[in-house]
Amino acid sequence: MTKIITRLGLAAILALGPSAQAFAHAHLKSATPADKSTIKTSPSELDLTFSEGLNLKFSGIKVTGTDKAIVKLGDSMLMQNDTVLMVPVSETLGAGTYTVEWHALSTDGHKTTGSYTFTVKP
Known about the structure:
Layout: H1 2-22, E1 28-32, E2 37-39, E3 45-50, E4 60-64, E5 77-79, E6 84-88, E7 96-105, E8 111-120
Parallel strand pairs: 2-8
Antiparallel strand pairs: 1-3, 3-6, 4-7, 5-6, 7-8
């Protein structure tokens, strides 16, 4: 009896496996500079790595400094099978804490948002 229940449970998991992937979202896996990191020099770009491919037209970031001033950024690009959003930083960042607010639309049409901070220390 236990073998039958185990097999039924396994069959249910296998049957639901593909549909679980259909409901996946692009989640932020890592970023450079990293969340809560302290760096010594202004970054020339921000690299955000997601769990799945993105639609560039509907994905992007906004960076603000300690004084809530918006940081000037260049044009975003997708890299590494469209899972890395690379955004050039057009200005030199002074000492302070910066907030990165991101929004992403995965290639399967799901939207996600989030934010993180990093600090530039002289």
